[in-house]
Amino acid sequence: MRILMIAPEPFFEARGTPFSEYHRIRALVDLGHTVDLVTYPFGQHVSLPGLTLHRSWRPPLVRRVKIGPSFAKVPLDLLLAVKALHVALKWRFDYVHAHEEGGAIGLLLARLLRVPHLYDMHSSLPEQLSNFKFSRSRLLVSAFRALERLMVSRSASVIVICRYLEEVARAIAPDAHVVLIENAPGSGDTEGTPSSGSVRASAGVPDAAAMVLYTGTFEAYQGLDLLFAAMRTVLAERPDARLVLAGGHPDQVGRARRAASAEGIGAATVFVGERPAEEIPSYLQAADVLVSPRSLGKNTPLKIYQYLRSGKPIVATNLLTHTQVLDATVAELTDPTPGAFGAGILRVLRDRERAEALGRSARALAETRYTYETYVERTREALRPITGRIVSAEAP
Fold this sequence. Notes:
Radius of gyration: 22 Å
Order of helices and strands: EHEEHEHEHHEHEHEHEHEHEHEHEHHH
Oligomer: single chain
Number of domains: 2
C-alpha cells in the first residue's frame, strides 16, 4: 500500500513521539508498504527505503516547537493541513495514517480521498492540557475531548502506545479496532559507539563513583525536581555519587542546573546535554542505576523500554505511568516523594546482588515481550481492517 502519514511534530527529533513515528514507519516499510510523511518544517533528515518526506512551510518567527500544546502549533498545524492536502491530491493513496492531533486533518483527507483512516494515539489530547499546564478552560478541554472522540470513533483502526490509552479508546468506542503497540523498539536497539569508560571520563565520573543516570526530556512532568531533592538523601550516604543527565535543550539545562544548585547538589550533578541516539546505550552501560522520576501523566516513558534492554537496575516512581510495564521483579518502585526515591536509589547501590537480579529480569522481559518481531506483527494487526477493505474492494 501507499500510505499518506501526517505527523504534527518535528521529524526527526530525539524525543518520544518522533521516535515512535520513526519506528512505526520502519515497521510499515518492513511489511512492504511505502510511506509519504507530511510533517513540520523542523527536524533532522531521515533516509529510509520506502519513505518520502514532505515538509510543510514554516510560519514567520517560529523557529522551533516545544513538546506538548503551544500557540505555535496553531499556524504550524494549519500549514501542515495545506501541505497534506497538496500531497493527497497529487498521488493516489490507500489509506491515511495520522498521529496525535493530526488525526483531525487525517479524517478530513480520508473522507475526501474515500479511503480508510488510522489514528495513531500517543496521548489523550484533553489530558495534555492539564499535564502541560497549558489551559484550564473548560471550553477548550471539552473541544479537545470531542475531537478525541471523533478521531477514535471514526477511524478504521486505532493504535495506542500503552494500556491506559487502550482503556481510554475502548471507553470512547467499545467496537473500535484498537491495537496496543508499545514503544518497545525505541532508540535502544542501536549499539552504543563510545565505551563505558570514555563516557564516564567525558562526564567526569570516577570509576569508583556511583553513577546515577537520567535520560530524556526536561519537561515538568518528568519529575526532575523530585530527582534533585532525592539526590540529597543519596549524597548524605554516598558522597561519591554523581547524577548524570542526558537530554534537555540549552535553556532547559540552564534552568535545571540552577535548580540542582539550589538543592545543594550542583557539584555532584553533570549535564551532558542532548546526545545522539546511538550514544545513549553507552551511557546506559556506564551507569550503576537508571532513574525515571516521572510524577505526572499516564503514558509509559519511551526510555523505560530502553532501560529494560540495557540490563541495568531501574528506580522509578510507583505510578501508572511506570507500572503498566514495570513491577517489583524488574525495577525498584518507590513512592513519588524525594525521601522514598532517594532511599530506593540507595537500596540498589547497597545491594549489588539485588541490583544484578533486577537487571537480569529487566533484560529477560525486554527479550521475551518487547521484541521487534512482536512489534511488526502488532503493526500488521492494526492494518487488518484496512487491508481487508482493500482486498474486498479489489475482489470483483
